[in-house]
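Any chance you could type out a protein's amino acid sequence plus the matching backbone structure tokens because I've never seen that pairing?

——
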Amino acid sequence: MATQRLIELAERLAERDRELSESLGRAWECARELREKLAAAAEAFRQTVRERGAEHLANVEVGPVEPDQKHVDCVQFRIARGRSEALCVVKAAGKVTLVGPYKRGKKEKPCVDFPLGGAEVERGLEDLLATLIEKASER
């Protein structure tokens, strides 16, 4: 296998994305902060349902921040309970997109955009978690 072709591809892509590194670094930082706050809220929910004798509702997960699965200029973390899932996608362009909730394997809708960081996106993320939990807890 000839590695020269891949070296040239790497050089071309690195040149194209050189300036993306700084804004993507800010996206990682914002995503980590949002994830930490949401994980604390999810833990408060889990603790409360356990204390109230409803352990079966405590299976709410907030995943790690990771590279976005669709775009190289975004990072994401997942929120899940059972087959219900939602995403928080933080874009290097300075936006946060909240996706879902949706059933895993189905269409990833609805989507709502927010500015990077701040109370507005935090409220949106809290609403997303609450909606996901309610939908995933239907009997």
About this structure: DSSP finds three helices and six strands in the chain. The helical segments are 4-17, 20-51, 119-136.
